[in-house]
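TA notes, week 10

Several of you asked for a full example with nothing omitted. So below is the full record: structure tokens for the whole chain, then the designed sequence directly under it. When grading your own attempts, check the secondary structure regions first.
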């Protein structure tokens, strides 16, 4: 199984792209799902979780 890293295919920080690559899913689906989940949870928790994941998940492999 691949390791979880942020993606080089990044719109902001590469978190959703990295998760999509790790799971073998389409990046667009993961991004849309994350945005919808964030909006449904009053947005702030989603932003906070994204920032934490950005800090915790290692950067893209060279």
């Amino acid at each position: 199984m691949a390791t979880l890293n942020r993606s080089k295919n990044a719109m902001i920080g590469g978190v959703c792209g990295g998760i999509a690559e790790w799971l073998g899913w389409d990046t667009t689906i993961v991004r849309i799902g994350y945005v919808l989940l964030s909006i449904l949870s009053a947005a702030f928790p989603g932003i906070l979780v994204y920032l934490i994941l950005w800090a915790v998940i290692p950067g893209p492999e060279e």
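The CA atoms of residues 17 and 31 lie 8 Å apart. Use that as a sanity check on your answer.
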